[in-house]
Specification:
Two copies of one chain form a homodimer.
Chain A: H1 5-15, H2 18-27, E1 32-33, H3 34-38, H4 45-57, E2 61-66, E3 69-74, H5 76-110
Antiparallel strand pairs in A: 1-3, 2-3
Helix pairs in contact in A: 1-4
């Protein structure tokens, strides 16, 4: 049932950075090589590679090397894990609001 | 259209901790005082208060003090912001898979 807290920690941590979110957004459109992923960012390559490493360790992306080119692709399952957690929280919250509505309604009827 | 990156940074960062996620889960069921929120955690109060502070600065919770008791409640909008980002990513990804399906289908028909 609940995800390992450490997994969610790593996932949220990986997504708490604009460069890493931009890479996830780009890979949502299809696989890309390191150089293509790095291009939009005014950042030294080693720093950019660290971001890719954080994403890969969180399980959000995977990579494969062919010759001198490493290609990255999105792993959708971890994104679903985060989304599931968010959705569960929203449902809990909405249920509570519904119960509150009912309560107010009951109060009005009793008056 | 897109959220301020700094806002999403703070939100994901705030959710990247099991104690803070547990507080969000608890507050989904209704407001609670500091002491009630702290009870399940084997943690010194100052450390716990820091977690509440991170959640409040990210905008995920708000608090009000009555006498000596501070009560916290969930602010659902920021959770929706995170959920929206997740949903957008999933849609992009699914659209890409659909396009890929179509492409494979076309290849088969051409054969």
């Amino acid at each position: 049932m609940p995800q390992q807290p450490a997994t969610l920690d790593r996932l949220f941590q990986a997504l708490a950075d604009p460069t890493r979110r931009a890479v996830v957004e780009r890979l949502g459109q299809g696989p890309a090589a390191t150089s293509e992923l790095a291009r939009p960012f005014a950042m030294a390559l080693p720093s950019f590679l660290q971001h890719l490493d954080v994403l890969e360790r969180a399980g959000l992306v995977s990579s494969a090397k062919a010759g001198r080119v490493r290609t990255f692709q999105l792993t959708p399952r971890p994104l679903e894990v985060v989304e599931d957690w968010m959705t569960t929280q929203r449902r809990l919250w909405e249920r509570r609001l519904d119960q509150f509505d009912e309560y107010v309604h009951t109060l009005k009827e009793t008056e």
